[in-house]
């Protein structure tokens, strides 16, 4: 299978076919996303929360991202690979943004990068990265890297000023050269208005059905999280397409029980033989 390209995505969008996107963080999740026929595989900085157990995405470094990106790139050969620029790696200057994005392609094996926000400096960073020859995806609405100023993981665009800011950011990011924009956590009519104002596809998450495509976090859609005290709660908008956490828990508990009861390993799982004379000489 050939790799999905920006041209494939554009023609899909033109035909009215929804674009599918899921996150992956390592080799096995990348293989699963690829085998399911997903269009875009996002190595999200949500890795900090769902894989490393942080409460926010802020601690994630570029080195962390590069390690996860390389593992994903080895596992997914068909989806377009998009990697998140983590907090603190693109806000300072256009030069810093281009340098970080370049590493995501050269060292991480990504096809494109994603960055958050639509302020003039973020738009300038997106433009500089695009002009350096790197495909850029935007991300507006709830931008988790801005949690310090947003004051929590809460929906955006619920008043005219906030909705206008989302629309203006999206238009500016499109003008800067973005091939697509993630719309996170906003009322459906706002996402619909943004989507119809753009010529590039929007990818929604908690933004309703009127987007060019949809994205969910791997661990959320699979219901991977089981620990009752875990900080990561599956967001309201996430549908559970499986209960993989429960399946894992069941399997691990059964394994533990069978080792304790000496049911495992039975003869069937004790495959290596040695002749009796060797046993006699050895012992
Ligand atoms: O990091 C991430 O998983 C994301 C998606 C939720 C869009 O940015
Ligand atoms: Na992200």
Helices and strands in order, then pairings?
Layout: H1 6-15, E1 19-23, H2 27-35, E2 40-43, H3 47-50, H4 62-75, E3 80-84, H5 94-106, E4 112-114, H6 120-131, E5 135-141, H7 147-150, H8 160-175, E6 180-184, H9 188-197, E7 202-205, E8 213-216, H10 218-221, H11 244-260, H12 276-282
Parallel strand pairs: 1-2, 1-8, 2-3, 3-4, 4-5, 5-6, 6-7, 7-8
Helix pairs in contact: 2-4, 5-6, 6-8, 8-9
The structure holds 3-methyl-2-oxobutanoic acid (KIV) and sodium ion.
Walkthrough of the structure:
With 283 residues, this protein is α/β, with parallel strands linked by helices. 42% of the residues lie in helices and 13% in strands. Strands 1-2-3-4-5-6-7-8 form an 8-stranded parallel β-barrel, surrounded by 7 helices. α5 packs across α6, α6 packs parallel to α8 (160-175) and α8 runs parallel beside α9. The termini are far apart. The mean pLDDT is 96. It binds 3-methyl-2-oxobutanoic acid (KIV) and sodium ion. Residues 44-46, 84 line the site of sodium ion. Residues 23, 42, 44-46, 84, 182, 205, 215, 217 line the site of 3-methyl-2-oxobutanoic acid.
Could you say which small molecules are bound to this protein?
3-methyl-2-oxobutanoic acid, sodium ion
Regions with pLDDT < 50 over 5+ consecutive residues? none
Oligomer: single chain
Structural class: alpha/beta
Strand content: 5-15%
Number of strands: 8
User: Could you describe the largest sheet, including whether it forms a barrel?
Assistant: 8 strands, parallel, barrel
Helix content: 40-55%
The overall pLDDT, averaged over residues, is: 96
**Element order: H for helix, E for strand:** HEHEHHEHEHEHHEHEEHHH
Report how far the terminal alpha carbons are from each other.
55 Å
How many helices? The count is: 12
- The dominant shape is elongated
Strand order of the largest sheet: 1-2-3-4-5-6-7-8
